Protein 1
Amino acid sequence: MRLPRLYAKKRGHRRTGSREWGSVGDGLFHGTLLLAGLFFGGLLVSGVAAPEWRINNDFVGTRCTILAKGLARTTLEDPPGAVSTHWRPCVRVRYSVDGVRRESWSSGSSSDNSTDRAMALESLSRWQLGSECPCWYDPAAPGMVVLERGYSWWLWLLALLLPGALVLIGGTGLVRGLRAWGKSEEHRAASPGLSELLDPLAQPALEAPDHPAVPLWDDLVNSPGTILRYRLPIESPESWTLVGFGLFALLWNAVVVVLAIGAGLDLLGGTIDWWLFALLVPFLGVGIAGIALFIRRLVFATAIGPTQLEISDHPLLPGRHYDVLLTQGGSGSFRTLEIALELEEQATFRQGTDTRTEQRVVWRQRVAGCDGVCPSPNSRFETQARVAIPADAMHSFTSAHNAVRWRLVVRGTPERWPKFSRMFPVVVLPVGAEAASAPSRLVAGREESR
Amino acid sequence: MSEPQDRPATTPRIELHFDQPHRQHQPRDVLAVRYRIEGCDGEAVRALEHSVLWYTEGKGEEDLGVHFFQRITDRTAMPPAVTTGAFTTPLPQSPLSYEGFIVKVRWCVRVRIFFASGRDFVSEHVFALGRIPPARNPTTEN
């Protein structure tokens, strides 16, 4: 019996972690999560849920007379060095069990437990000395009596949610590890089904029918064009920048408002918290700058006007030509407006604990360009061009961490604004593939393996 | 050709032949391979796996797609009883082999031997699907 090696060789000269030891570590991690979930679940069930269930189902009901009442004080050192005091209402009652009179102290429900003595006293005022009220005692230990029943739903939720999540994560991780144990990577990759269910983060991208690893183009052909067959959806980096600036301005200024309300209340109360004011001034400055940047981006996005691109057919095939129609709205004029066809590679990789994505344009071809474009407020600017897909072009490719993407890019240089670019993704099929007019179904998995 | 994962006293050798010259295949072609295993006479074989798959190389994490997979556990069809084998599979339309800058797609045939001792040995044989030229410098082509 050999022990697995700590390191194994991958490709080239890189040394990588051993898969066997990785599986052992993964199993230990998920096993610990599972055990922790079971342990805490057991504690919560036996310490909270089961006693409460017994009170509501096993305890015998009768009537009792209230003889005395008081507060039970519990002092805890929590956290170390600090002392916290809890008050709990207690009532001494007299009741009969099978004809035998008994007296016992009954504690209120756990929700009556309070760090505020006045609040605990208020809870105690519900019971009047000498009055009669219903009570429930434990038939196994008749000295145990309660005056109230019911369920603490948040405790049950806690008992189910936290240990349940640990059990779920640990259990699925263990099952996934056990299923993969002793299997080659080809065997694991060729065994879809439960493994995909257990590892949803590693799902492959949606694939086009009969074209493994080619992205689906459903959402690129669902909008008809006004002149050509399809209007391509836009993927504008400026839009995401605008959303980013908007979110930042919103969240930052929400914090500023909270701080300002606190400072204002202090001021109305006649006190001035200088630390709060000192914090508020730079926060306010950043908040105003955030709003100004957002408004500037918003004006930039709306001033340039909408860009639309229509295409005569889709998906695209290598060696074919397609008509494209560029329309530019708005009232601003442009020094240049250009359409280009680009091929971009994208790789996602882990660097330490971070996940990074790198993009690189590896091929670019100018399709058309116009100088001195002046769209009028009443009619949009239009220009038609012909785009050729190289006969030996790589097709669009997508997998979990890698992609090769084709796109048409419109770049403009407005007279009074910074340069902008708007992207229109397209899908190029492999050489020789028959283009389907529209995909009929989604294929999420890989091809069937034998 | 063969990439042993371990170096025990006896290292198997797998000699694999493609039916097409230069290991160049086109989409929808039928891939046919023959192989011969040598050098595992002294060790019992538990299972044998044939697979045809693509994987990515480059800057990103490795992705892998298995197109064809076959596991043989019948002792009468494995070494030392039988030391040769063959299998065929129609190739898919995609993904085509690609030599990009940060993304590369490669196709290969793998024959993996699982020994009774627990170790395994894999032999990987790369072939090309399609004829996509390598990516060139990203300069504007007018």
Note: Chain A touches chain B through 53 residues (CB under 8 Å).
Protein 2
Amino acid sequence: MTKEEIISKAIAQNLIKIPGQVRGVAFKTDAEYILKEKIEEDLKKLETELEKLGYPIKYKEIQTMSFYPIGLRLISLLLIKKIFNFDDKKINDIGFRATKKSLIIKLFIQYFLSLRRVFFDEAPKIWQKHYTIGKLIPTELNEERKYGILRLENFNLHPLYCCYLTGYFSGIGHMIIKSPKITVEEIKCVFRGDDCHEFLIKWE
Amino acid sequence: MSRIFNQMGVKNNQNKTEQTKISTLLEDLASLESYARDLFSFLPIPVCFISSIGIVLEANPAFGNFSNYEIEEIVGEPTDKFFNPEAIEEISRETFEKSFIKGKEIDLVTKQGKEIPTIVSTVLRKSEEGEIIGYFIALFDLTEIKKTERGIRNAQTALLNMLEDINEEREKTEEEKNKTLAMITNLTDGLLVFDKENKLLLVNPQAQNFLNLEIKKVINKSTSELNEILVFKPLIELFGREIKKIFRQELSLGKKFVLEITTAPFMVDEEKIGTLVIIHDVSREKLVEKMKTEFVSLAAHQLRTPLSAIKWTLKMLLDGDLGKITSEQKEFIDKTYISNERMINLINDLLDVTRIEEGRYLYKPTPTDIEAIVQFVINSYKDEIEKRKIKLDFKKSEKKLPHVRVDVEKIKLAIQNLIDNAIRYNPAGGKVIINLKQSDDGIEFSVKDSGIGIPKEQQARIFTKFFRALNATRIDTEGSGLGLYITKNIVEAHGGEIWFKSKENEGSTFYFNLPITPPREKFEEFIKKF
């Protein structure tokens, strides 16, 4: 890795090889977040860094509904964190805000009729609409005690992505649960030695 | 093999076709997304989509601008954040029941906590299975309309207040009018009210009674028309068809029925809007006055005969016709003689007054040289002037004055009264300046003294019968208070005018002006008053 490189080309080449694809909407919501928090030049800086790594993508030209390599998305997210010096909370916030702008989420709004239905029927579908890898399995929902658990299997991407997904699930939670306080916590993680990821959603 | 290859080729072709289709569909979907986003963003009306559980799932930029929240701060938030919970609950319930709402008012709460009045329309959204997903809500800003409405309401309130005030004023005016009418009706004097065109508007019961009028026949009639009515004729002749200003002029409607008429125009902003004619019955006063005059006349006549007898007896005593008297006796008789003379003068004055009042004051005008009369009177005061060391200056006219038609005796009396006052109320060594000159319309006589003057507050009564100024009574206790009254009547009987200027302790100047030829009718008119 040269002095100028934020991520080495070698790492990038390894990441791009990760199998699986993700919808363009994920790149779009990332770009919108940067434009909101930063300025246009910052987005160009990100594009320049990507180009340096050999991936000359233009965020504005990305098609929302098209599929792109998930490795590229991970490279983009890692660059965002490093270029803009974002902490995990910020990455979590990118995930949270993505739900409010995501077209796919909007398309699924019509199914947000009941918590149980969204949780057990729609959540796995929403995942599949976004990602070609990994499997989201709702394991438990207790409306009386106000919590639910979502399990994510076969998705061993990067710990940074766990932060993103925690925010993302929290955003969806806000859309389907009318509560003054909703929290999401990753209670199991493959990067902590667990066999899968598990996210505990709690509300008041 | 070839079949296998052919089959593989077909499969490859099919895959390519499928991929092309998917690619086209994705492009179409992206275009559709762009179109939907642009349409939603372009909408100038604030719109949001609310889920069936009351969470905002989507909002357009107009809603963001309207509420001052970022879209991220709106989506995923409960509706209570933006609307009054009860009001939005009511709107949700109604939308679920009726599928839509049109024109319901609700306040939107902005990020700054400001409440904006809006009118909302909603439309229900259902899934393909017919389940309620939520509803769209569109808001229309009512701020300006409310402001206008408030303005209209304020204007309406102001108008109502004004109307109330007007009603109040009208009631007050009505009350005032009733009071005025009650006063007019119950006034002991008769009142006639004419409008600015001199049409009779109102006759109070007293006027009706005095003039024996039939209201219907006179009301709304002009003075010209009223002049044709017998009872009104003398009245119109008195104040004219234009109703000139007159003050306490008498009108005899029969031997014992005398009315005193005063006219007063009433003005608004210097514009005459009508005239008030006040009719005061002075019949009783006139009768009493006449009886009084007759009594004074009788008493004076009765007194004059014995006083004349006393005078001649005293004269004989003083002249020694009845024998020699001592100097002490002479002194007493002298004093008695002077007192008796004063008494005779007083009686003569009283008789003059009664003659004036009874209209028997004889008037025999002859062309006369006034200067000669003035000189004659001055000469008659020669001894008195010397005795009191009065400096008397008679300033005659440089050019020859024309003769004036006057009753010599009466004018002599008038001049005598004025010069007598000037000497009498002047301190020893004082000054008297007599001036005689031709004026624009006759001869002007004036006599100026350096005497006691007339106190300002008593000047208005100076020509009144029996009135004597307070400072004059201190100096001379003998005056009758009739001199100036008689003088004024004589001057006015000749069609002249009399006036004065005076300052207490500095002196007085009395003036009169006589026309060369006095109008006879004026004298007669004057005499009629008495």
Note: DSSP finds eight helices and six strands in chain A.
